[in-house]
Design brief:
507 residues; alpha+beta; Porin; elongated; Porin_dom_sf; signal; coiled coil; Porin_O/P
Length: 507
């Protein structure tokens, strides 16, 4: 702009000067014209300098006070600038989120098991007949192949859906919708999830200390069910948890009559003591009602591994309209150490011999007993991290460990050892001294000693080895496994040893 003004002035002066010179002034006239031109140039230069100074002042003012522009202009500029593309964060898998409260993250885990289950009673191998040996010895399986998604929605809502594709079929893990406002102590959960049944059973199988959860989970059928639960918790310090819920049948129940239901409640107090110690004190209760068309219950358990489908203790079906279960929980974490223990008591609400049923009711093939059987289980465990980590804990359950020196960053990862003693009793003398129904339930007793070694190279990678020695007494297999014993059927004993390894990755 300034250059154009300057050039235009020079051109105008140059065009008029020759005409004036030709008009008759000679040398004196030309000199006068040149003087006039010099004055004109000086004037133009002064104007150019003034314009430059004014322009520089406006630029400095604009830089010093950008907010001085009208709000309408600022808004127009902002709307014309394209927002930067959102980038996913990484938490084992990409997580996408926006400022409005929407988020989405794929999740899942893979578990591959292999190992050996010994044949019980080898000293009687030549005389044993009728014992089903399927799935004993060496075996392997895809324990879990879980794929799912999780995310949040505006207003405090969230969702989670996981499907297990192991064993050439589709099973259902947690499939839930939750609601919790930020910093609110109230949490509502709707969908398919574990009823509030105890510390080990509500803990994810990703982070359990053994290959399988405690035997009570298997023996007493602590399975996920469709239901709704309400939790009152401590959103700041995670020091207490009160939960209650009502549940129907399992989500994959194929029976037409899905009338079975249960109510459950759990309370946890988990204060921190000092910098690296936390206690866990809990209690839980379940009231369960059997399906109307099949009013019976059955309790049985595998030998602490699902490499076999053998159950060496088993009550068989008991005619009942359900049961009541009470459990106590204890745990403590102090630096690299943790200890934990749980106990459960089961009261069966059985039907008496001679009970008649309506046209829509049925006891199935359950046996009738003259009293209500009572069963129980308990375990105690101690664990230690050789590499200095502490066992993860959050929300009233065990959580993922944070590896201090990951393998990919030059460390050796986290190395943990665990030892557990576990007892479960499925025998009960309801009323009388005979070994036959309706007086005696000879489900058997199982005492297990299990040790595991867990290596986490990184937070999301896990390898485990476990050895278990199990002593059995009584049960439906005792007469077959130990046919030559002079002991009563409910006191005949035998042993089983198991060894298993697992490779796991989760995201």
């Amino acid at each position: 702009m300034l250059r154009k003004i300057f050039v235009a002035g020079l051109l105008a002066t140059a065009v008029t000067s020759p005409a004036r010179a030709q008009g008759g002034g000679g040398v004196a006239a030309i000199e006068a014209e040149l003087a006039a031109m010099r004055a004109k140039i000086a004037q133009l230069e002064a104007e150019v300098s003034a314009l430059k100074s004014a322009q520089s002042g406006q630029s400095a003012a604009a830089l010093a006070a950008p907010a001085a522009q009208p709000p309408a202009a600022a808004e127009a500029v902002a709307t014309n600038v394209a927002p930067a593309p959102e980038s996913p964060t990484w938490r084992g898998a990409p997580q996408f989120a926006d400022k409005n409260g929407f988020s989405f993250k794929p999740r899942g885990f893979l578990q591959f098991d292999a190992g050996h289950v010994s044949t019980p009673g080898p000293e009687y191998a030549g005389t044993v007949g009728g014992l089903n040996y399927n799935n004993l010895g060496w075996n392997s399986r895809g324990r879990r192949i879980v794929v799912g998604v999780q995310g949040t929605l505006p207003g405090g809502f969230a969702y989670n859906a996981e499907f297990n594709f192991a064993q050439a079929q589709v099973d259902y893990e947690d499939i839930i919708i939750t609601y919790q406002r930020p910093k609110s102590p109230l949490l509502v959960t709707i969908g398919n999830f574990f009823p509030y049944s105890g510390l080990d059973s509500v803990t994810s199988s990703r982070v359990t200390s053994l290959l399988e959860r405690a035997s009570a989970t298997d023996a007493f059928s602590f399975n996920r069910r469709l239901g709704v639960g309400i939790a009152y918790l401590d959103p700041k310090n995670d020091s207490y948890l009160l939960t209650a819920g009502i549940f129907g049948q399992e989500i994959n129940n194929s029976n037409v009559a899905r009338t079975g239901w249960q109510a459950s409640a759990r309370a946890v107090y988990s204060p921190k003591i000092g910098d690296d110690t936390r206690l866990h004190l809990g209690a839980n209760f379940q009231h369960r009602v059997a399906q109307q068309d099949a009013q019976n219950v059955q309790y049985r358990v595998r030998p602490l591994t699902q490499l076999t489908d053998q159950r060496f203790i088993d009550t068989g079906a008991i005619a009942a309209d359900g049961d009541d279960i009470f459990g106590l929980e204890f745990a403590a974490i102090s630096g690299p150490f943790h200890v934990t223990a749980e106990a459960q008591r089961v009261w069966v609400r059985g039907f008496r011999p001679g009970r008649t049923f309506g046209p829509n009711d049925g006891a199935g093939n359950g046996l009738f007993y003259s009293g209500d059987p009572v069963f129980g289980s308990a375990y105690g465990e101690i664990g230690f991290y050789f590499t200095g980590e502490s066992r993860g804990y959050r929300g009233g359950r065990w959580d993922r460990v944070k590896v201090k020196r990951p393998f990919d960053k030059g460390g050796w990862g986290a190395l943990q050892a665990n030892f557990r003693v576990e007892h479960i009793d499925l025998s009960d003398r309801a009323d009388g001294a005979t070994l036959l129904a309706p007086d005696f339930v000879n489900g058997g007793r199982q005492l297990a000693y299990a040790g595991s070694l867990i290596w986490n190279p990184t937070d999301y990678l896990r390898f485990m080895a476990q050895y278990t020695h199990i002593a059995y007494e009584g049960g439906p297999r005792a007469a077959t496994v130990v046919p030559g014993s002079a002991d009563p059927l409910d006191e005949r004993s035998f042993d089983v040893d198991t060894f298993g390894v697992r490779a796991q990755v989760d995201f």
